[in-house]
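This is your field. Please look over both lines of this record.
***
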Amino acid sequence: MTTKTKITLQSGAKPSIAVDPVKATVTTAEVYDSGTPIDTWAEEVAREQRVLAQGDVKAHLTDLEARRVAIEDGVMRRANHALYQLLSDCLALATLASQLDPSNVRSREIDAFLEDRGLKHGKDEPLFSKVITAVFGSVQRSRISSYRTVLKAASAAGITAAALPDWIESQGGIQEIRLAVNGNGRDQVSEMASLALDYLRDQGSVFALQSDELSKQTSIESNGKEVVLVATKKHNGTFMVHTVIEDQSAVKKALDAYQRKNQAAIKEFKYELKYRPAMSAA
C-alpha cells in the first residue's frame, strides 16, 4: 500500500518516489513546498523552461520503467494474490463435504444472504455461482462472470480450493483462463469477440426489452446467453424489432463486427482489465 508522508524540503530540493527493491514496495513522499504539490517530471521541465539534454528522456523512461516493474511485482502482484485467495475461500465453501452439512444449512443461508442483499440468482444455479454472486455482487457483471468461469474451470480440472491460487497463477491469471475457456468451449466464441462481449457487459445495457412474443421464439437453453435481435431503424429513431436469433454463430459474427468497429476502445478495456483487480484493491 502506498505510504504518504508530508515533509518540508529546503528550497531547491527535489521530491522523489523511492522504490525499496528488497520489499518490492513503492513509497511516495508527498512533498509540499509553500503549499504547492509535487510536479511531474514533464511539468517541472515545462515550468522551469529547461532545455532537454541528450539522455534526459532516456534516463526518465528508465526510472518510470523501474517504478512500473516495482508496482507490478509488488502492489499489483500482492493484490492479485489476495484476490486468488478470496476465490479459493469461495470454492472451499461451495465444495464443503456434504457430511459436514447434513441439514443443508449452507445452501439455505447462502440463499438467505442473497435475499438480504437483494441479489438475484437462479433457482437451479450452481452453488459456486451463488457464492460468487454473494461475495462479488456489487462489482461489474463481467468480473463476476470471469470469476464464475475460473471456479467452473478449476472444478472441471480437479483443482482443490487450497491449490486454486497457484493454479490461477500458473494459467496466466483470471483473464487468460476466461479466454481459454470461452475460446475452446461449446460456444466457440473468438478471443476478441469474447472480449467485446465483456466490454459491452461492463458498459451496461442500453435498454431492457420484455416481449412475450420474442420469448416464444427462443428456447429455455438461451436463458443467460446472448442472442441477436433483427430490427429496422425508422427515420424517427425508433427500432422495430422483428425477431430474435439464438444461434451462437450469429452472435459470434455480430460481436466480431462490433469489435472491428470499436477496436481502440476494446483494446484499452483489455489493458485496463488486466490490472483492474489490483487497481480496485490498491
